[in-house]
Amino acid sequence: MTIFLTYHINAIMTQKTSAALADPSAPASSVQQDDNILRAAKLKKLQALEETGTNAFPHKFERTHKQGELQDKYAGLENGAETEDHVHIAGRVMAMRNNGMFIDLTDPSGKIQVFCHKESMEPSEFQKLDYIDLGDIIGVEGTIRRTPRGELSVRTKSITMLTKSLLPLPEKYHGMTNIEQRYRQRYLDLIMNEQSRTVLRTRTMIVRAIREFMNNMGAMEVETPMLHPIMGGAAAKPFVTHHNAFDTDFFLRVAPELYLKRLIVGGFADAVYEIGRNFRNEGVSIKHNPEYTAIEAYHSYMDYYDLMNLIEDLVRFIVLAVHGSTKIQYGDKVIDFGPPWARKSMVGLVQEETGVDFMTIETAAAARAKAAELGFKVDPQFNWGQVVEYIFAETAEHKLIQPTHVIDHPYDISPLSKLHRDNPRLTERFESYVNGWEICNAFTELNDPRDQLARFQEQVAQREGGNEESMMLDDDFVTALEYGLPPTGGWGVGIDRLVMLLTDSSNIRDVIAFPTLKPNFGNKKSAE
RNA sequence: GACCGCGUAGCUCAGCCGGUAGAGCAACUGACUUUUAAUCAGUAGGUCGUGGGUUCGAAUCCCACCGCGGUCACCA
Length: 528
Description:
The chain has 528 residues and is of the alpha+beta class. The protein is built from 16 helices and 18 strands. The protein has helices spanning 2-16, 18-22, 30-51, 67-73, 123-126, 179-184, 186-192, 194-216, 257-265, 304-323, 346-354, 364-373, 384-395, 449-464, 475-483, 495-503, and strands spanning 82-97, 102-107, 110-115, 137-146, 152-163, 220-221, 227-228, 240-243, 248-252, 271-279, 291-300, 327-330, 333-336, 342-345, 404-407, 429-434, 437-444, 488-494. The strands form four sheets. The protein has an eight-stranded mixed beta sheet, sandwiched between helices. The two termini are 14 Å apart. It binds one RNA strand of 76 nucleotides through helix 3, helix 6, strand 17 and strand 18.
């Protein structure tokens, strides 16, 4: 596999750098030569080790304890105390002091010091230190002690090479700080940076908590297609891909919505949810990755009032699971998920900010004129709802630091929401904002097939008018609604943003193990 | 996409009003067996992102390109 990948990348490089390689004085294998210089010392040790008859990559090592377990178990052991407690531990060599007498051995649970004293070890074991480098994975057998200076240690009896590392680790004090390299070589970032490990582990905890909450309420987790023949479920620019056997283009999904509602139509379950990736062919920023993870859920016989309560309960459950408190620190702000969240209508917030009640403005043209009067440069194509949304985003959105449900969105920006029971210019929709970010989008689902068809047709008209983010008409979805979608509430939460909030991360790439990066085949650092 | 900034040894960084490339850590050789970024002495390691240009001479000045970061606009 590795050989194949190397070959493949070299082939790409050859295409891209054929001019340079055509020069006979330019060594085609310069990358490999660099590697050989870097690896020479370690390869030499590896070969010397293998000449002693040792397997540097054995198949199995029986551990008795993890490092973290030992730190917990012996937390009360006094300085200078020796025990006869015999352990087998394993991990990566992260530091060697005093010529290998002290080794910091880490595993995912923590770190313990390995103490190699020649009077405790057979000479044949002690000599193995000569073959060990920073970065190697080793197993150690010995007894537990705490040094006079207070460091919990294993007094080594024997050492086993488990995996010989052939490349040097980054510098131990500063670690790896090059941001690009941290994302491109996440494994190195994880080895070196505790903070990176913590953030990504917290992400896993958050996803686990979401599943627990949903499963506890009886919702069924499902999977729906990521290859969509029809772009729908959200307004967004999609990726297009091609299926060879069908000779057909597919869109990578921008949202699972239309499939999940089909499952509710089918009576598969009262509530379904999907946690998965959506793909949007749009800009990349500290808050946007081309593929991002969201949960979407649909609950029959709930409306958007029920969903507001549900979202508050869910987020509190997650925050408590991760932090043990409903209050979190993000940058210099303290955010409290505990109290009931504020509920403010979008039109009302616009009125608070501008003094203008847009409900008194009937037409799109009048709305645009009023916006212009207020100093906003709105698109001449904007309809009434788009004007309201634009002014909301410009004036109010960034101020919504504490959890707030923004409710009752205009009809014409909400093509899948049910009309508001009290006002047909609005819909029963809400978006939950925290720290100025939208973290949830939810609504009482539109289930009148005649209305849905009309909304699709509006989308198609917008699409033909040049809006490539508008949805396509999904006939089969309308057909499904014609069989009958019960009254249903649906919602989606962007998990990456939520993880950013709960890990105090300022860049979405910090909460995604392998964020989307521009390929850089010509860079020798990436060509390894 | 626009603007600003960055790219020098495996890693962290100096050097940049042009004069043949420097430190610390890592590595290698040696000393040292109770260290915590261990210490001490020595050695080796770099087409200074890529390609052009100006110049007697470019890491340094200019142009283009690649990648990254930040800000802004649209999207979660």
